[in-house]
Amino acid sequence: MHYFDYKNGELHAENVSLREIAEQVGTPFYCYSAATFTRHIKMFQQSFADRDALICYAMKANSNQAILTLIAKLGAGVDTVSGGEIKRAISAGFPPSKIVYSGVAKTHGEIKYGLELGIHCFNAESEPELIRINQVAQEMGVKAPVSVRVNPDVDAGGHEKIMTGKAENKFGIPWKRIDKIYDLIASLENLEVVGIDLHIGSQITDLEPFAEAFKRVGTLVTSLRASGHNIQHVDFGGGLGVPYKNDNDIPPHPDEYAAMINRVAGDLGVKYIFEPGRMIAANAGVLVTKVEYVKQGDGRDFVITDVGMNDLIRPTLYEAYHDIKPVTEPKDGFKTRKVDVVGPVCETGDYMAKGRDLPIFKEADLLAIMSAGAYGAVQSGTYNTRPLIPEVLVDGDRFAVIRKRQSVDEIIAMDNVPDWV
Ligand code: LLP
């Protein structure tokens, strides 16, 4: 559920009209609802209220400092995947004890940074990484808390580019080799086992693949403990899907997800860690854009907007569906037309929707691309020298720009022209 609704014929974020924001900050812009973020974090926390559980928001979904600060204040932890993300987390107020650090290519410097801070856990993805973590910890005279990411070889369905739990994916260690890996850890003096983790993919709308993977991990926990390894937590990763289309593909509620986990792992006597990203952020944000032109093609019409694939890459990269709503509510019985909603970038793949039945738009109309709070702004770039667009946070009746619009001059100033050119 989210707080983007029509009020007095205009789409609002909580109590603020998107048109009013557009008038003040220009288009395009991302707009987030603080109440929606808060609601989603609390919902997840409540689903596990009777367990020892830590929700570590996967900040890759949306890592704006204002969003992170909001989430840190709700008592959540954070899942990070780079030294940069760890730095963001610390400056937003997350205590190191609530930071987990995932990712397949942790550098010497990043490991050192995590150890200096005393983060909760390194989620290791390979033997060479464990050896490197041990070496850095030895140089610093400390013990590194580690967990190993299991690749359970489970097909979670969905788009191939966001599935991570199959044997052919680069992530984790094959579950059949896990015993040996924990024996390796036990032999390395500067490592300390704290848990086990997995993450099987993203936008998963069925509990079955989760249950299958988690059962496999449950069996591993039992056998690892029998071999003397001190598994204190299971980190179940993220991946719970969100409703991108209004009526289709309604994913399981966190309560159903919690019931499934308690069924398959409830008796293990472990602390639970979760890394939800999309479920927290996706429906907490929209992307507002303006129609520049409406163009008649041969057999299809194009609504050309001022937002491009550099601002939101999900439709073209993952064939992702985002609902598109007019900011001004269409009148009852309005007509629709099948159109492609495209952007200004010089690429055929620059589209937000294809062959979509939408109300009839004209130049200067405002549109909201829904469910754009996760993997939107964070995946944007400046292709075609298009400056990064602003992010706005709404809270009740007030709003603030939480990332300003970049200028073309700022982009140009990043480059250096040597005097010998
Ligand atoms: N934990 C780990 C280790 C991950 O790799 C991810 C996401 C998450 C947690 C959070 O997963 P979530 O709850 O958000 O599904 N850019 C793609 C999604 C990539 C997800 C990468 N890993 C998209 O726009 O769909």
Helix content: 25-40%
Strand-residue proportion: 25-35%
CATH topology of the largest domain: TIM Barrel
In the CATH hierarchy, what is the architecture of the largest domain at level 2? Answer: Alpha-Beta Barrel
Would you identify the CATH H-level superfamily of the largest domain? Alanine racemase
> Which blocks of ≥5 consecutive residues have pLDDT under 50?
none
Number of strands: 21
Mean pLDDT: 96
Structural class: alpha/beta
Bound molecules: ligand LLP
Could you describe the largest sheet, including whether it forms a barrel? Answer: 9 strands, mixed
Defining traits:
421 residues; alpha/beta; Lyase, Ornithine Decarboxylase, Chain A, domain 1; TIM Barrel; 2 domains; 9-stranded mixed sheet; 8-stranded parallel beta barrel; 12 helices; 25% strand; binds ligand LLP
Describe the structure.
Helix content is 29%, strand content 25%. It contains 12 helices and 21 strands. The strands form 3 sheets. Strands 4, 14, 15, 16, 17, 18, 19, 20 and 21 form a 9-stranded mixed sheet that branches. By secondary structure, it is of the alpha/beta class. It folds into 2 domains: 4-31 and 282-413, Lyase, Ornithine Decarboxylase, Chain A, domain 1 (Beta Barrel); 103-274, TIM Barrel (Alpha-Beta Barrel), CATH 3.20.20.10. The structure holds ligand LLP. Residues 58, 60-61, 79, 102, 162, 199, 202-203, 237-240, 275-279, 314, 318, 375 line the site of ligand LLP. Ligand LLP binds at residues 58, 60-61, 79, 102, 162, 199, 202-203, 237-240, 275-279, 314, 318, 375.
